TrEMBL record:
Residues 20-31 have a biased composition (Acidic residues). InterPro entries: BBLN_eukaryota (IPR005374). It holds the Pfam family UPF0184. It comes from Callipepla squamata. PANTHER family: BUBLIN COILED-COIL PROTEIN, UPF0184 PROTEIN C9ORF16. Coiled coil: none annotated. This is Bublin coiled-coil protein.
Amino acid sequence: MSGPNGEPHVAPGPAGRDGGDEDGDGFGEEEYAAINSMLDQISSCLDHLEEKNDHLHACLKELLESNRQTRLEFQQQSEQHSTGADTQGPQPPV
């Protein structure tokens, strides 16, 4: 059963020790299973974040390319207008 923050609830073993395994390392099967479960959840969250990051990166590259294209078009139009005004010469006042 999970706690309020998604942490697995593991009851203390005999005599207040966690796990109560015979090896004396302080971790029993339940603790390892809980740790594995938490690591799986972390891994899943990181995978999800990586997917979102990749999508965002692709969107930003697309936006950057679009902005470059728009800027080039604007520069070309600006150059055409300035070249056209130069070839026509000064306009007499009306």
